[in-house]
């Protein structure tokens, strides 16, 4: 039985019970290149009515045949490279929901594309495309969920049990896709992020829902954290040095000069203060008078003293 057909069976149950159908598709990628796939289809019921409705409904007859679903997945085990024992199928009746839970854990990451985009039993696949890749420490998922009107519209229109209902049967559905990636999520376009890091998208009824998410693990993320921590420490150190310099400068300006010491000059005063001038040299001694020059004069020479021999 295809997943779409299982959803249509749930729609019939929901119509009879006056409830809505919840479809949850969950994918988890792991660092060891394994993956896990879960697919839940259930109807919500009013509080306190789950047990009574479960007793009134024959879930096997309504399409929730565990052996049928398990057998289909076992047939796909060899094609998609997983162990048949990795398949789990159970009917659930909890938290106000009744339905079926199907899981494959583990399976190769490369098998997800075929599992989610394969059209089985003539029913269209929920996903138009799905690609999960890994490059070193980088994980990425790029996918596209088909509009509900494309995947469920024809199936519901052809179901005679739903013929003549006065509303669009796709309005009874709510499809949600959840994704868990290893490491730290770096990019995503999810509608919601749960506390444990799970990314959640709500599928649209009228247009394709685009899924895009990336994560990183190992040394790459540790290096990013280390760089961020070093950058933060550098900023703190610079701020501390600036504050200490300002504080010291402020303290120097507030302390008055001690008595007996000259007050320091301001930088401008130091730059413009005149230099001390050297004392003027002492005046020079007057020169002695020069001897008179008597040559060329008409005055007679002085007379010799008495008794001098001429």
Question: SSE layout and pairings?
Answer:
Elements: H1 3-17, E1 21-29, E2 34-44, H2 50-56, H3 66-80, E3 87-94, E4 97-108, H4 112-117, E5 127-135, E6 138-145, H5 148-151, H6 153-158, E7 173-180, E8 184-188, E9 192-193, E10 199-202, E11 209-216, H7 219-254, H8 267-272
Parallel strand pairs: 1-7
Antiparallel strand pairs: 1-2, 2-4, 3-4, 5-6, 6-11, 7-10, 8-11, 9-10
- Assembly level: single chain
For the termini, the CA-CA separation is 175 Å
Average pLDDT works out at: 75
Proportion in β-strands = 25-35%
| Global morphology | rod-shaped
Kindly provide the radius of gyration, computed on alpha-carbon positions and rounded to a whole number of angstroms. Answer: 50 Å
Helix content: 25-40%
The description of the largest β-sheet is: 7 strands, mixed
The computed structural class is alpha+beta
Strand order of the largest sheet: 3-4-2-1-7-10-9
**Residue runs with pLDDT of under 50 for 5 or more positions:** none
Strands, total number: 11
């Amino acid at each position: 039985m295809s997943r779409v057909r299982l959803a249509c069976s749930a729609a019939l149950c929901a119509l009879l019970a006056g409830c809505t159908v919840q479809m949850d598709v969950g994918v988890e990628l792991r660092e060891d290149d394994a993956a896990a796939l879960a697919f839940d289809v259930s109807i919500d019921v009013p509080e306190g009515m789950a047990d009574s409705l479960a007793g009134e409904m024959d879930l096997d007859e309504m399409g929730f045949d565990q052996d049928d679903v398990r057998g289909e997945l076992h047939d796909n085990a060899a094609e998609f490279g997983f162990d048949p024992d990795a398949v789990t199928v159970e009917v659930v009746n909890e938290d106000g929901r009744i339905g079926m839970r199907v899981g494959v854990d583990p399976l190769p990451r490369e098998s997800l594309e075929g599992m989610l985009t394969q059209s089985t039993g003539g029913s269209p696949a929920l996903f138009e495309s799905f690609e999960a890749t890994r490059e070193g420490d980088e994980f990425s998922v790029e996918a596209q969920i088909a509009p509900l009107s494309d995947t469920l519209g024809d199936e519901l229109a052809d179901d005679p049990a739903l013929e003549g209902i006065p509303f669009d049967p796709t309005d009874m559905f709510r499809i949600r896709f959840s994704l868990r990636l290893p490491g730290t999520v770096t990019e995503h376009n999810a509608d919601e992020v749960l506390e444990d890091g799970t990314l959640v998208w709500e599928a649209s009824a009228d247009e394709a829902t685009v899924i895009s998410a990336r994560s990183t693990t190992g040394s790459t993320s540790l290096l990013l954290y280390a760089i961020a921590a070093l950058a933060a420490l550098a900023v703190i150190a610079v701020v501390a040095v600036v504050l200490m310099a300002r504080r010291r400068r402020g303290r120097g300006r507030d302390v008055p000069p001690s008595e007996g010491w000259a007050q320091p000059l301001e930088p401008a005063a130091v730059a413009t203060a005149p230099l001390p001038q050297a004392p003027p040299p002492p005046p020079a001694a007057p020169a002695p008078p020069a001897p008179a020059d008597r040559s060329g004069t008409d005055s007679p020479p002085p007379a010799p003293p008495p008794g001098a021999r001429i």
